[in-house]
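I hope you will forgive my troubling you with a question about protein structure. The matter concerns a single protein, recorded as an amino acid sequence and a row of backbone structure tokens. Please examine both parts with care and let me know of anything in them that strikes you as inconsistent. Thank you for your consideration; the sequence and its tokens are set out here:
***
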Amino acid sequence: MSKILVGLKRVVDYNVRVRVKPDGTGVVTEGVKMSINPFDEIALEEALRIKEKGGATEVIVASIGPADTQQQLRTGLAMGADRAILVQSDAPVEPLAAAKAFLKLIEKEGPQIVLLGKQGIDDDNNQTGQMLAALWNRPQATFASKVELDSGRAKVTREVDAGLETIEVDLPAVITTDLRLNEPRYVKLPDIMKAKKKPLDTLPIAELGIDAGSQFKTLKYEAPAGRSKGVMVKDVGELVAVLKQKGLI
């Protein structure tokens, strides 16, 4: 195997409490800490482990977003990726446009595996990996909690509603990662300094011939309703009575 392509998305850090703008047009991002989407960080960790075992010669990280996304790509390089590609787009990119952009990078780079997080924690679409596999006309293994490579095939244990299932797919393939696949490594200061010298290429999304225009229109953003106050009960009988009163049983 030669290359692994890993998608990294820039999102509001999962430790930050997301706030809706007063006018309801979006969420507040000014002055907010941004990070690599946690599922994508797991995807990168898995790619690095595959490379360290001799299963790949190069790990490439790619992202679609504004110029500031270079910060997350540099973090990916500090983790151990060899080089980075930023497909620059100042407008939000929906899953289908993202899949088309990754397909263009695949055609250019020729990876054997494309590793993506199963979903972004910002929009939770869980669509890009599946769309990419369909456009690429290659197998997909989603929600991976274990990945084993052998002779041009990948054996993937998937997390599904009923538990776990194991499938085998021929490579090249798209694999999307779940939380229990691994624990990403800690980035050390020397690695951060080395990452500054690693190549990071930038190209406008328009150069890929992709229409990144939105197919959906968001009318309004609203914060979830506040939690109602809990009720203290003395015994099971009182609990049942309260539940009946609320129409829950």
